Predict the 3D structure of the following.
Amino acid sequence: MWDKIVKQTKAWAIAAWTLPFVALAILINLEILGLDTLKEYATIAISITFFTVSVFWWWWVMAQIRYVFKCMEDTSQSFKEIKKDLAEIKKDVVNPNNR
């Protein structure tokens, strides 16, 4: 699962670095070419895309945080069980006749 999270995080980072520049390049080129109607449509499409990506990103982050907290809780529970088992082993080693 961790490998999947690392891959997804890298994909989000690449998207965060490249997509705004791609959108800016499109709008600048449409402005330079004087294609105002196309620029208006592109602005709307880019705005909708940015909003949609932001919502998906937010829900992805919330799911990953929930997963990390579940892993931490599972690890804590495992440590509690190990601690209990070690205490029992210690008791058996100190007093082997009390089994």
